[in-house]
Amino acid sequence: MPNKPIKVFIIAGEVSGDVLGAKIMREMPSVDFVGIGGQNMTDMGLKSLFPISDLAVLGIFEVLAHARTLTQRINQTVDAILSEQPDVVLTIDSPGFAKAVVKKAKKRGISKSVRFYHVVAPQVWAWGEKRAKKYAKIFDKLYAFFDFEVPYFTKYGLKTVAVGHPIAGGLDKYQANKNNDKIIALVPGSRMNEVKKLLPVFQKTVDMLYGCGYKDYKFVIPTVETTAEYIKKHVANWNVKPEIILANQRYDLYANTYIAIVASGTVSAELAIMHIPTIVVYKMNPLTVLLAHILLRIKWVSLVNILMNKTIYPELLGKHANPNAIMDCLQQLTLPSVRKQIISDLKCADSKWRQNNTNPAKIIAKDILNK
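Below the sequence we write its predicted structure tokens.
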């Protein structure tokens, strides 16, 4: 009799995880996948238990506001795992949800033969090493993006593999594709709560720019499936209406972007790899900001700033994420000397993103198949 195909319960709780999840699925065509994902993973044949927008929440107090929905989704996910009895549970980012699901599945008596693997190392170097110890108790293996992250977890006995950043491999071709068009990309994020906070800020910023001599500039917003309709409705009321494009067109947009104004997240890493001058903004609950200042052990939220240990991308967080501050930063980024320095720093960061020029999805897939 032929061997029974391996079954993987895969969980991606936000758009960046959904993109990587689809790439991993593509590398394992013979595997039976079940679980939770977005459009990219459903295009690969996954039937998601529920929309990933239910999990796309960031910030301590923002999570509390959605606690009831998250609890329901955790229970629903655990029920499905127990029913499916997969060989591997593969969680991608969304650490709070992932940990809650795994802990509950184990508590409810999941077979000890099931392996629990997680993709994207939590930023223990920012929040404290105790989180690494907790991960070592919950997961059987961790796939980290960077070499420097590995010792934090192997120290506590967690098998950890550095695979490189998944967005690094396919973006090189866009670095030489700049037409220096007068395009300002506005990226309000992929989570609905951050989009609702940032769109009004972007609207006022665009009005200010248009009134201050930037009439020749074109404003473009790339959308993702979880927020596209909301953004379209909101933008319909703007005095200066930006162009709306689909997420799969975003790299062509970024390649020709003069300056990007973006929510903190994966997009800032994409733009850093593509060498695009960028302003990072984020509106959070004031209490979340306060706790971050108290607990956070790093100076920045943008990965390129953290990797290079310097401010390359200006960051405007909390109350500083306002139109006036964005205007000040944008005017600086139009200066040739400032742009030249930023692009030079971004080029110096190129080697930090890669793990021996390998394909992270392929590394993860091969490792799972050889479990």
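The chain has 18 helices and twelve strands.
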